[in-house]
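Weekend entry, working from home. Most of the wet-lab plans are on hold until the incubator is repaired, so I used the time to fold the two sequences that have been sitting in the queue since the last round of cloning. Logging both here for the record. First:
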Amino acid sequence: MSYDASDDYFLGYPKLPELPGLPGRPDGEILGTTGVVVNGLGMTTPLGGNVHSTWEALLAGESPITVLDEPWARDLPVRLAGRLSQEPTEVLDRVEARRMDRCQQIAMVAARQARADAGAPEVAPERLAVVIGTGLGGGTTLVDQHDLSLTKGPGRVSPFAVTMLMPNGSAAAVSLALDARAGAHAPTSACASDNANALWPARTCRLG
């Protein structure tokens, strides 16, 4: 099978039917190969707390892998892991961080970096959307709140439990923070979520 970068079907998406173009646009242009520009980057990784530090560590050949030495990890068959070099709680407001699962905290840090890197453009809320893929969602919250319910009763479960554990929690949190009203989407298909997460925003931009 040949690969064509403009062929969405290669990534598992069926081709959309041909539709007439919008007023002022040639037919098919909105679903064609109109270029989409990435003008802002953000990340927080085991190698660095932002794009620059992560890239510099990569160029230097640094390894972020460490050994888990906490008591809870002693019986694990594999105790190697890549920990974040900077905890999200070091960047986020304390109250804000408490209302988000760890995965949402990470997403928020990266999203704000990307927006700042793009020059913090003024965008109408109705034209600003968020797409953040995930393989699971707030797994830490799910486990913690389940244990809390069993040991101290359901009345002690956090009122933010659902918004913290749902798969679209990261997209929802970021969209609320950025006042993005054009959509908050969360492709969820295990490790393949990244593919959808790259394609979904591009197709959304092409659709105008």
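Second, folded right after the first finished:
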Amino acid sequence: MCQRLIQSKFSLPWLLSWRPFTRPVVCAVCWQRFKRIERRTACPGCGRDQTVPRLCPDCQRWPAERPFHNVALFTYNDAMRAYFQQYKFHGDYRLRRVFEGTMQTALHQLNGDLVLIIPVTPSTLLSRGFNQVSGWLSDGLNQPRGLQTLAREKGVPQSKKVRQDRLRTPQPFMLALAAEQIQGKRVVVIDDIYTTGRTIRHAADLLLESGAKSVTGLTLAR
């Protein structure tokens, strides 16, 4: 990310162990600029980084009866903002590898019955060339059977909207799954950033209304 040469040091015990070498994709200096969220004290509703494990003011405004919560891995600080600018908005697909392992490990730990990603519109997929979420998980494409966008083209980007405009966003998704594939399932929905939560909660509402037992969100940043 910073264009520094990544140097790896090998100890004698490691060399004698014959373990495979995995080359790091980001230097230690860049990695330390990302701030991990401590799940033990994070908001139990959205995963916001805080010192006490209680619902944050944002989550207190959402209906509490829905079986939904979000797990966020990192805070959306300056380093994360710069990462998304390069990866998502400038389309540098190589940067998927920075958080590929982290996201896949977190997904495995959630142990859901069904995994769905937040899709991008067909026009966004065509212009950017990939879905930033599935870039961390698989092939960088929208799932052919899962959540789909109702719109063919993206309107005003969420990143350009103020909070109240985001919250007023109508349901943008439809399901491309049969009801029996959802009913009674513990579903994990993956997105890139949890800001107001409107997008991922729209997806959760759709799945819960279709019979999902519960929905857990997983986002890289909050």
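Plan for Monday: verify the second prediction. The two ends are 21 Å apart (CA to CA).
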